[in-house]
Amino acid sequence: MQLKWLGHSCFELAETKKVLIDPYISQNPVAPKVEVVPDIIAVTHGHADHLGDTVDIARKYGCRVVSIHEVSKYLEAMGIQCEKMNKGGTVAIEGVRFTMTEAVHSSSIDGGSAGCPAGFVIEDNISVYHAGDTALFGDMRLIGELYRPEVALLPIGGRYTMGIREAAIAASLIRPRVVIPMHYNTTPAIEQSPEKFSELVSSLCPSEVVILKPGESFELR
Ligand code: NI
Ligand code: MN
After folding, report:
1. Structurally, how many domains does the chain consist of?
2. Which of 22, 27, 130, 168 keeps 20 to 30 A from 46, CA to CA?
3. Alpha-carbon distance 4 to 91, whole Å?
4. Which residues have C-beta under 5 Å from ligand 2, the single-atom ion?
5. Contact in structure between 194 and 167 (CB atoms under 8 Å)
6. Cα 221 to middle of ligand 1, angstroms
7. 137 C-alpha vs ligand 2 centroid, how far in Å?
């Protein structure tokens, strides 16, 4: 699987299908100017830095969107084809399995209600946990035990999500082979040192921290 980081919480996972997660691209000051053509879009919650360009990309390429019930209702009203789901459930879309997990955060769209925030475990030969925006919570250990993700994509920016102290403990609860930090250095409010995060993780568990620059990819076999 090729995991490409497009900055903030946006990743493209390319294996049998191309899955785009939280496509905050056109308004993201650090996103690379690349064309993304996904098969499926996954949205963790309604905040603009996650919902991002979902409507434009889904319309342009006719791809389906997987998101929590309330976000799906919003998107369906805009003519987007959605796969509604909720936490604890799994849905297979074009052979890719999406399990929706807990996230401790808030959610809204343009200030209106958008249900709850979530994370995803996405399985396309390789299992990837995208934590969404979240605080640290103890049941991350269960996510690790149940779904055995090989990769965990964890927010480290602080202020709106976990910082490095909390995210390092998250890594030690989940115990993936690889951790890739996200949701940092997009704006000064979430400035963070991924190197310090890497040192903290090394002190707690054997997971390898892979630090990407926006636009860079990591290949996992
Ligand atoms: Ni958020
Ligand atoms: Mn966010």
Report:
1. 1
2. 168
3. 23
4. 49, 133
5. no
6. 31
7. 17
148 CA distance to ligand 1 middle (Å)? 25
According to DSSP, residue 41 is labeled E
Distance 141 CA to ligand 2 centre (A): 22
Query: Angle 74-131-28 (CA atoms, 0-180°, nearest 5)?
Result: 65
132: left (phi over 0), alpha (psi -120 to 50) or beta: left
CA–CA gap between residue 113 and residue 108 (Å, rounded): 5
**d(CA 155, ligand 2 centre) in Å:** 9
Q: Mark the ranges of the chain whose per-residue pLDDT is less than 50.
A: none
Is there a domain that residue 154 lies in? yes
What CA–CA distances, in Å, run from 14 to 6, 19, 32, 54, 115? 13, 6, 17, 18, 28
The whole domain housing 171 covers 2-214
- Looking up residue 123, the CATH number of its domain turns out to be 3.60.15.10
How much distance in Å is there from the Cα of 50 to the middle of ligand 2? 6
Instruction: Render pLDDT for 70-114 as a digit per residue (tens, 0 to 9).
Output: 999 999 999 999 999 999 999 999 999 999 999 999 999 998 999
Q: Which residue has the tokens 């994370």?
A: 119
Say how many Å lie between the CA of residue 185 and the centre of ligand 2: 12
